[in-house]
């Protein structure tokens, strides 16, 4: 239920907060509540990802895409992520979530999320995603044009490029049958 309240807060706040250009950062502020915790009494790893959904939603709502997303019934989807956890978030601790579009290529939009406290970086994630419509995946160039952006993609940082290469290698790896229990691996 907590996420529904946070979702509602992001929706309402987006009406009053400044608009964002395509490559601007969204910053949301939160506090760790008891239902965000896992058995180790720090924020659950899955909760970080759920809050990052809100960061991407804020980027859409405060940017220029929301009208097109509603009119065309586009749905934002994630196709991959890599997450690095650095410091735990403790009960009632305040933190900020910064979300930004890093770059895009012919297939994907690349976004970064940073969860930070007064002590520093707690979590960093790189996501790749797209929008899907009734006819299939919407090309990143169509998304960028719908956002009113006419320039080229910012340069893809080397660390994003490394992840792209690893991801391509995963796609080319044949699926292996599962190992039966009792068999040697």
TrEMBL record:
Record flagged with keyword Transmembrane helix: no
Pfam family for this entry, one: 4HBT_2
Alphabetical keyword list: Signal
The keyword Signal is assigned to this record: yes
Signal peptide interval: 1-21
Name of the featured protein: Thioesterase superfamily protein
Origin species: Magnetospirillum fulvum MGU-K5
